[in-house]
Amino acid sequence: MTRTLEQVAAMCGGEVWNTEDKQVTIQGVTTDSRSVAGGCLFVPLIGERFDGHQFAGDCLAAGANAVLWDKAKGTPPGPAVLVDDTLEALQRLAQSYLQESKARVVGITGSNGKTTTKDIVYSLLSTTYSVHKTQGNFNNHIGLPLTILSMPEHTEIAVLEMGMSGRYEIELLSKLAEPEVAVITNIGEAHLLQLGSRLEIARAKLEILAGLKPGGLLVYEGDEPLIAEVLQEPGTVKQDHFTTATFGLAPHNDDYPVGMMFLDDGTVFTSSAQGDTPLHLPILGQHNVINCLAAIAVARYFGVTVQAMKEGLANVQLTGMRIEVITGDSGVTILNDAYNASPTSMKAAIGVLHNMKGFRQKIAVLGDMLELGPTENDLHRDVGAFLTPDKVDHLFTYGALGTKIAEGAAGHLDQERIHAYTDKIELITDLLDVLHPEDVILVKASRGMRLEEVVEAVKCNDLHQ
Q1: Alpha-carbon dihedral 350, 351, 355, 356, rounded to 10 degrees
Q2: Mean of the pLDDT values across residues 331-357?
Q3: Taking residues 262-281, what's their average pLDDT?
Q4: Helices 306-314 & 114-125, crossing angle to 10 degrees?
Q5: Reading across the β-sheet that carries 41-42, which strands appear in turn?
């Protein structure tokens, strides 16, 4: 974003501190004093333990052209736009910039799969349009405005991921971005600790309708009855007129897989809406085929051709550690999915392992799934009960909750194939004794368990067997 301070003030509801600075031009916006680029606008935010205003002078010295400045903080250290609240001003600035740009918006939320779906939507739409998307995890009340403000002026479609930790956060983001298309990938168990039930999670995700443009499109997982239930609730804030498109495994959806063939480098599938045209998704897992159906519904809405979709799928690039396939130094195949975990995503990853063919052994290393609330023990046992001899040959668990996965697996797996640990070094040592170069191993847990350390140990070991 390139604007004068006079324009910035008008966009965010502030006023230029020194009238002589009205024509000072800013290019780009940051809230991070460590990443100041020449000519940018620095926005100092205030938290429980920090106040960005104390770094404003250093940012100006480092090359920032101006700052937003809370009126209650006294005299600014240089060119500034005075505002009542810097966070609210940042959000208003982003909303104004988006409206001025005329870019159409796709908003994506869901308990699992929203980042993967965002990446696929971006790849499909990029074959036909100039597209901007959320980078990394910039999907909250601060990250989403920064994503918008980093958008090139010529952008035709913005694909914005919308995350949350509680109620009314997605409503804020939706009203800010005003999506033309809203996508809900699924309703899982993430945030059970904060929200208490899957029904309440569904209500939180349906908040994406609050800012949906009149006549817009809602794309959602039709296999999830809670979405349809909340859609009918009188308390759900939504436009009077919008259309829907459902996706999922069941034939009652507008689009569902007709056939799937699992390969080492992805999945070939056909769907009811695409007819006999096979599509190759270079990502593992049935669950990612479902994510792809959601993305295809978005692409179809924007008029992307089937041939262009094929090209887009061939060039999909995913964000972060989401079932990254790694070949270790010994030749062992590692499915690294250590970025995050919930019961839904854990079972999906186990399904990927199940469909891997031609390996000597299939081994799962599963750790704690965090922030699941009072039923966390039962949810971990349920994941363990999902493991059967045809899915895994050995189960290694890590963490106090991981032992509950081991307990659940005891109903199906022989005890000598179940290995539970609370010491990661001990787990790695015993795992390496079991592993063979012709094995495939899945590693998955919540990010806080740091199971990437297991991945690195397996990757770098010669496994002389």
Answers
A1: -30
A2: 93
A3: 92
A4: 120
A5: 15-16, 80-83, 66-70, 41-42, 29-30
Beta strand pairing call for 131-133 and 157-161: parallel
Q: Which CATH superfamily is domain 2-85 in?
A: MurE/MurF, N-terminal domain (3.40.1390.10)
In sequence order, what are the residues at sequence separation of 6 or more whose Cβ sits closer than 8 angstroms to the Cβ of residue 234?
A: none
Confidence of residue 271 (pLDDT cuts 50, 70, 90): very high
Element (H, E) at 420: strand 418-421
Taking each helix axis from N to C end, the angle separating 86-101 and 169-177, rounded to the nearest 10 degrees, works out to 40
The answer to which of 92-101, 313-322, 376-385, 432-441 has the lowest mean pLDDT is 313-322
CATH number of 102-314: 3.40.1190.10
What CATH number has the domain spanning 324-459?
3.90.190.20
pLDDT in tens, 219-267: 999 999 999 999 999 999 998 899 999 999 999 999 999 999 998 889 9
Distance of alpha carbon 250 from alpha carbon 256, whole angstroms? 6
CA distance 162 to 138: 9
Residue 411 has pLDDT above 70, yes or no: yes
Query: Which residue spans of the chain are classified as CATH 3.40.1190.10?
Result: 102-314
Q: How many residues does the chain have?
A: 465
Pairing of strands 394-398, 418-421: parallel
Burial of 430 (0-12, 13-18, 19+ CB in 10 A): middle
Residues 12/16/22/24 CA torsion (nearest 10 deg) = -80
